[in-house]
Amino acid sequence: MNSPADISSKTQLHLLQDFGPARATDWQRAADKLLKGAALEDVLVSDTYEAIRLEPIYHPQVVEAQSRQETAPATPALADHTWEVAQELPLEPGQEYSALLHEALDNGQTAVNIDLQRHSHLKLENLRLALGGVDLATTPVYISSGISSLAATAFLTEICAERKFDLSALQGSVTADPVGSLAATGKVPCSLSDIYDLMAGNSLTGTAPNLQTVGVSLTGYQNAGANAIQELAFALATGTTYLRELSGRCQAVTIDDLARRMRFSFAIGPDFFLEISKLRAGRICWGRVIEAFGADPNTTEMVVHAETTRSNKAQIDTHLNVLRTTTEAMAAVLGGCTSLNLNGFATNNPREPLSVRLARNTQIILREESALHQVQDPAAGSSYVETLTSQLAEQAWELFQQIEAMGGMVEALRQRFPQTKITKVAEARRLNAACRKDTFIGINRYVDLSHNDLADPIWPAPAQAGPAPPQQVQKLHDWRNLSPGEIMSRARAAAVAGATAAHIDSVLPDGNSAVRVEALSPWSVAAMFEDLRFAVHRWVKSRGAPPSAVQVNLGSGPVVKARSEFVADFLGIAGIRITHRVECVDSQEALTRLPDADTSILALSGSDEEYARSALQIARTIRKTKAIKNVVLAGNPGESRAALQEAGIDQFFHAGVDVRQTLTDILTRVGVFDA
After folding, report:
1. Fewest C-beta in 10 Å: which of 12, 381, 405, 504?
2. pTM for this one?
């Protein structure tokens, strides 16, 4: 290799000639030297919740030496990858919704996104008002309906008929996902065979070729704690169930057409590169499934809707959610989503105007300023992402095969196989969050205590009980004996007569054939810790004063300072401030300078040497002379723990301790929680 002098004397660099090849072994030697004897595997290698080992570097030489699965484009084969900005607006569809929707469409939103499961009391008139003035020829409409899309299909078909709009030009989706609803709610009110018959007979199947009618929602699994491999396997198993069940019922529809009718919905979590790889791996695996059914994987690409996860969003320091949703949105786009919904940062008030606008504008910035739509599969070629994609695809396929061997996704749910798998991962997530192995800024570390106004969340008012169903609904009760055309005709008549979506879907229940399984249990890392702050806040409001926290710093120096800050951060998670701080040079001074008033929490911070000299004496004396509910010590006492506990130390603050349980115990002694 040429010397620096030789290179600097040249007017032009020739990288291949002027610099030697970068070998993985060279990097390894350089890393070992910097680690000064520490094992690279212990310092720079970590494991994900998918049991995938993350290496510190993915050198092309190493990656190419590994057995690799085939790769596939992660984004649709379009001239540019312009995903649909499909924000779900936080209003009940109607006149007010229409005004907000038109404002959104005028300012960058490109699609309508309505979850009818949350608005089952709505009528045709509500949807008519909501879509008033919307150009259905250019604006996709996405409606997700849960178990059955009969009501949504009837509403939309009637609106198109009123406008004399050709259904063949309709874009978007009106989807049913009974298996996803079964997992999320634990029940389907009738036999799944009946639901599959209804899905197969959907009148839009033959008249609206650009509309997806079959949904596969994975958001419930992700928000319950599932890892990426599980999400992918459940997606494949659910999609396969629908292909298998509907292909035999839709004689006039080819497997290619049926595959193009499917829309997969993923929640995107905080692990940036893993989420990119998840969507890319999903396309690879789904291509295999399609090919196994005899379809062409090159013309039936996986349609992916993405939304930002709800499990890591704060309700107190909500502006931090902007950072979370932005990185999650980037991962969704780089992974190849075809439509995207960002949940607003104001989780405590979904109707906050700034939250709604910023969620939409985040997508617009990613498109117009970051130009992410101008590159197809931008992660392709990254050794790291390609390796993750391959690993996820391989392991998801193996789990999918296990589910198939059990008899498919529904049977697996009956046997609690997915639920058990998810629970195991969710418990690991809870433990790592509780011990702060996983850091969530503003939630379990570095809490901003200036957010004192912990107002109760503002949720939309619950829907009032609607009117009695119109007489036309009665004509739908024998839908099992009707042709698809007759079913839709009667559903439309009921809609015109004023039936709500719930009225129309009320014809489904059949108690003798209802399906029940164990429902998924959503969890929130934010709620784990913010519940402590809300409890302290309520206690302060009733008492008029916060818990008193006194900190005693024994000596000085970097160790004492670090432990002092650690204690303040630890208590801050529960919204507790240090109200009095004592700096002292020895134990006698510490004892004489303590306040005489009752103290909720007293925290000792010092070096291990100072603890050895005076911690036992201080603890014993404090317990004899002061009214203190909790005495805590910053640091891991090791072999001295038992003696310190006997002397009166209640808790120890150090890395790896269960923060949530420790704070719960402290607040219980204070009186915030009942013992």
Report:
1. 12
2. 0.91
